[in-house]
């Protein structure tokens, strides 16, 4: 089968870019022919190991196809980016013309059997219009739903195209309900596929791998350095625990004032923080195998792939009880996971200022409890972690997507 993959932004392999990389790899393993259209910064060097460059067409930003920085699906990206809600009508029109032109080129050059887009957003809308007579499926990563709430004037323009999608892949039941409510999609068009991880890379062998229980407890955060991810909240909470022996590994990058604020809080913790910057998959897996505790204090997520990676790597988890995460982990009887309840938020990813002290208290308590469990020499429950994560390998997730591609042996 010839599959055209479309992603509006691919500056690195985190988030939806990481998902696209895995889907193309699995599709190749299954014998499918892949082609890609993606938005990239003008200085970004695509990975030739992902897809042959004669099977890729790029919309280049910052002075080639478009003069402005690449818009990200979050308003804070780990690179200089354009914010959708701040775009003028003219820049939006230029954006749409550029993507339409490149998608039409891909149609002419590749002539795909099926189109797999990412995000219920502008590029997917254009793909549906260009391929009016061919099957189009779209993966919802959650950030497109947040953009809908941040700039509804754009969101209302895409709903008609979203309703015409042949399938929509969602991360969780909660996200499926959101898509139904926002876009009025028939439930039978939505398939819950979940998020995947590479079990060959992210794993833990109790016989050969070690997580030392003496010395500092190794805590890991991996993701964007931003307020929405809860990084300032995490760093301030750790400042209240000077009596505990820990070391925080901060992996990820950010941009602008939010990044600088996070770094200032990290530097205040001195040698208790190691700043890794953005890590490759291989390097992140190495850090995870040594870490005792993975912390994700985010205020908004779809179904965080990084939690699956951390669990598979033998890390205990401390994270906010967001709907997608709760859906998978709420019934756990293992001390591998501790969920922090959030109060009502001001908007989709911002707490009320009055609740900040309560949030810091809850996170501090969760951190202290987790650190004490680890220092008690209790070993991670690897068997339980494998039971939880086995349905979220990329082989399993892509198999669910492929079922929708074929739809009883035919392409829709």
Automatic annotation (TrEMBL):
**Entry-linked CDD domains:** GT4_PimA-like
Q: Which Pfam families match?
A: Glyco_transf_4, Glycos_transf_1
Ranges for domain Glycosyl transferase family: 207-333
Q: Which GO terms describe its molecular function?
A: glycosyltransferase activity
Q: Which InterPro entries does this entry report, sorted A to Z?
A: Glyco_trans_1, Glyco_trans_4-like_N, Glycosyltransferase_grp1
Give the record's keywords alphabetically: Transferase
Signal peptide bounds: none
Q: Which domain of life is it from?
A: Bacteria
Q: Tell me which residues make up the Glycosyltransferase subfamily 4-like N-terminal domain.
A: 96-198
UniProt-listed PANTHER family: SULFOQUINOVOSYL TRANSFERASE SQD2
Q: What is this protein called?
A: Glycosyltransferase involved in cell wall bisynthesis
Organism expressing this protein natively: Desulfocicer vacuolatum DSM 3385
């Amino acid at each position: 089968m010839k599959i055209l993959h479309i992603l509006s932004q691919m500056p690195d392999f985190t988030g939806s870019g990481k998902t696209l990389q895995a889907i193309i790899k699995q599709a190749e393993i299954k014998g499918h022919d892949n082609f890609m259209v993606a938005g990239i910064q003008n200085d970004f060097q695509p990975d030739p190991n992902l897809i042959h460059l004669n099977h890729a067409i790029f919309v280049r930003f910052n002075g080639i196809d478009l003069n402005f920085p690449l818009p990200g699906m979050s308003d804070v990206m780990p690179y200089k980016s354009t914010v959708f809600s701040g775009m003028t009508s003219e820049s939006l029109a230029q954006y749409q013309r550029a993507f339409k032109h490149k998608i039409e080129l891909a149609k002419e050059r590749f002539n795909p059997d099926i189109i797999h887009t990412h995000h219920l957003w502008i590029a997917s809308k254009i793909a549906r219009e260009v391929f009016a007579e061919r099957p189009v499926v779209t993966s919802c990563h959650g950030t497109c739903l947040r953009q809908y709430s941040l700039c509804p004037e754009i969101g209302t323009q895409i709903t008609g195209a979203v309703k015409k999608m042949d399938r929509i892949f969602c991360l969780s039941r909660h996200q499926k309900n959101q898509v139904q409510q926002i876009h009025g999609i028939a439930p039978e068009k939505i398939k819950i596929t979940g998020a995947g991880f590479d079990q060959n890379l992210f794993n833990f062998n109790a016989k050969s791998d070690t997580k030392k229980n003496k010395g500092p407890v190794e805590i890991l955060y991996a993701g964007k350095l931003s307020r929405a991810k809860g990084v300032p909240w995490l760093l301030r909470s750790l400042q209240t625990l000077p009596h505990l022996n820990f070391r925080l590994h901060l992996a990820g990058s950010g941009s602008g004032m939010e990044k600088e604020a996070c770094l200032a809080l990290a530097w205040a913790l001195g040698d208790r923080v190691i700043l890794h910057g953005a890590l490759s998959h291989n390097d992140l897996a190495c850090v995870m195998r040594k870490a005792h505790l993975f912390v994700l204090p985010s205020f908004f997520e779809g179904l965080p792939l990084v939690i699956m990676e951390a669990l598979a790597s033998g890390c205990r988890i401390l994270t906010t009880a967001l709907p997608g995460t709760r859906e998978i982990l709420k019934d756990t009887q293992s001390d591998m996971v501790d969920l922090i309840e959030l109060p009502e938020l001001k908007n989709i990813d911002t707490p009320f200022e009055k609740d900040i002290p309560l949030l810091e208290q809850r996170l501090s308590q969760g951190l202290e409890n987790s650190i004490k469990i680890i220092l008690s020499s209790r070993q991670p429950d690897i068997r339980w972690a494998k039971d939880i994560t086995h349905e979220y390998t990329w082989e399993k997730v892509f198999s669910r997507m492929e079922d929708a591609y074929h739809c009883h042996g035919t392409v829709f």
